[in-house]
Design goal:
The chain is of the alpha/beta class. The chain contains seven helices and 19 strands. The protein folds into two domains: 180 residues, FAD/NAD(P)-binding domain, CATH 3.50.50.60; 105 residues, FAD/NAD(P)-binding domain, CATH 3.50.50. Strand 12, helix 5 and strand 13 form a beta-alpha-beta unit.
Length: 310
């Protein structure tokens, strides 16, 4: 065991990784957090976070992450910038290979590499992300009270989120490229029965348009070749989520069909001494608050493993 440079390595600096880092540093573990870019993850794409406990007036995504990072640093969390390109996780000493050719060894690992929304890839999408283009209706829906919005997608997530958005929006336009939805029949029936939801099928978004105040609408091309402009103030791109898993040994971890990592309730994967937390986990709910909670649980599981493994 003495061959390992660290007790614990946390890979990823989003809410799950930062919370794990805070708990690990406070527990005085020999721990390091590795992040390939700026800490924060997808939260940095969120202009305003209105549903994180302790901030009754809301808080910007940047400021929330800044506070999380500062709190972890106060307890002395070591951080290292760099991309992990491969992981050897099977033995008692884990080895993480870095992009610069170096490596790090440890006794336990928390995988908190997160996920990213699938982008539609149309003009205006990136420009208006955080200013009317969103990838999370649960996060941003309350900002659109009394307004008209569009949901792009036809699967379970898109239809569920469209139904959720009707709590706030005056009208929700569901835009889907096929002539029928992919969502389960019970969800479709609920959506079709909702007078606030309109369906724009056999259609694709060609461009997101807007100005200084944000999104003003989308250009749509129907499959029959006709085109039109749909005025909306919010566009929710709900066409799926991609795990950040390029560096992971997916077969050994038992990744699901989408590439996410299954864990038990204590965030333990099928590999001893390897935990996963946050959006990289195979789960239904992906929120900042759940990611933070999972990061804390993962460290407690890591501490237990380190104690019992000598």
């Amino acid at each position: 065991m003495s061959a390992a440079a660290y007790d614990l390595v946390i890979v990823g600096g989003g809410p799950a990784g930062l919370t794990a880092g805070l708990y690990a540093a406070r527990a005085m573990l020999r721990a390091v957090l590795i992040e390939k870019g700026a800490v924060g993850g997808q939260v940095l794409l969120t202009d305003w976070v209105d549903n994180y406990p302790g901030f009754p007036e809301g808080i910007s995504g940047f400021e929330l992450i800044d506070k999380m990072a500062a709190q972890a640093a106060r307890f002395g969390l070591a951080t290292r910038l760099g991309a992990v390109t491969a992981m050897e996780l099977g033995g008692p000493v884990k080895r993480l290979v870095l992009e610069d050719g170096g490596d790090i060894t440890c006794r336990a690992v928390i995988i908190a590499t997160g996920a990213r929304p699938r982008q539609l890839g149309v003009p205006g999408e990136e420009e208006f992300t955080g200013r009317g283009v969103s990838y999370c209706a649960t996060c941003d829906g309350p900002f659109y009270r009394g307004q008209e919005v569009a949901v792009v997608g036809g699967g379970n997530t898109a239809v569920e989120e469209a139904i959720f958005l009707t709590r706030f929006a005056a009208k929700v336009h569901v835009i889907h490229r096929r002539n029928e939805l992919r969502a389960t029949r019970i969800l479709q029936e609920e959506a079709f029965a909702n007078p606030k939801i309109a369906f724009v099928l056999d259609s694709r978004v060609q461009r997101v348009r807007g100005g200084a105040q944000g999104v003003e609408g989308v250009d749509i091309r129907h499959n029959d070749g006709t085109e039109r402009f749909l005025p909306v103030t919010g566009v929710f791109m709900l066409i799926g989520t991609r795990p950040n898993n390029d560096m992971l040994p997916l077969a050994e971890l038992g990744a699901d069909a989408q590439g996410f990592i299954p864990t038990d309730g204590e965030m333990r994967t099928r590999l001893a001494g390897v935990m996963a937390a946050g959006d990289i986990r195979s789960k239904a709910v992906r929120q900042v608050v759940t990611a933070a909670g999972e990061g804390a649980v993962a460290v407690l599981a890591a501490e237990e493993y380190l104690h019992h493994s000598g």
